[in-house]
Amino acid sequence: MKIAIIGSRNVGITLGRIWSKAGNDIVFGVRENTNSGISKLNDENLDRVSITTIPMAIQEADWIMLGIPYSAVEDVMQVNAKTINGKVIIDATNRYGDKEISIPDLIQMYAPDSQVFRAFNAMGWENVANPKLGSQVLDIFYTGPDIEERKIMDKLISDTGGRPIWIGDNDLTSLSENLENLWVTLAFDREMGRRIGFKILRDE
To answer: The dihedral of CA 92, 179, 152, 84: what is its sign?
Structure first.
């Protein structure tokens, strides 16, 4: 499978490494390839990783992961609307506080034929790179439609070593964003640090 990762932030670079080693072809779409993370990827000479412009990356892949700042989402979607429409989109952006529209809804304003999954937002990138804390494996929560592609989404999350937990369709996106806000509050305001995460426990 070919996945385009838009942006050069830590979470995207981390997932690019993981997914390429799991057998996927990864193409990074960036505005410039002088970013330190991208430069390090170049130095690693990963067989299944390439770097190009954002429009070319979107054109080449069937799955698109948005690893860009929330403030850049609408611009990227608007400029690339014709090319990205109909592709499966993973929204891994971060935003804090209340907004008038959810990010999946914003994405589908420009890509109405796309299926959108929101994931990797309620955790630090360090926990994506290593989702094991002590003896516990972190749960990675996501929202999105209950369609065949959800099996692929589960696999992509499992490839990180975390356990996928599907919350429901994107009408429940606010729940994942509440987890995101809780993680930020505990990690920074309560000074617990970035290596914290969430885990569902149940009586089997």
So the answer is: negative
Determine whether domain 2-189 maps to CATH 3.30.460.80: no
Amino acid, single-letter form, for residue 59: Q
Statement: the pTM of the whole predicted model exceeds 0.85: yes
Residues 77, 104: contact at Cβ < 8 Å? no
C-alpha–C-alpha distance, residues 145 and 156, integer Å: 16
What is the Cα–Cα distance from 175 to 154, expressed in whole angstroms?
A: 18
Task: Compute the distance between CA of residue 156 and CA of residue 17 in angstroms, rounded to an integer.
Answer: 12
Question: What does the pLDDT look like over 85-122, one tens digit per residue?
Answer: 999 999 999 876 667 788 999 999 999 999 999 999 99
**For 48, how many CA atoms within 13 A lie in the half-sphere containing its CB?**
17
Q: Provide the residue ranges of all domains of the chain, joining segments of one domain with +.
A: 2-189
Burial 138-159 (b: 16+ CB within 10 A, else e): bbbbbbbbeeeebeebbebbeb
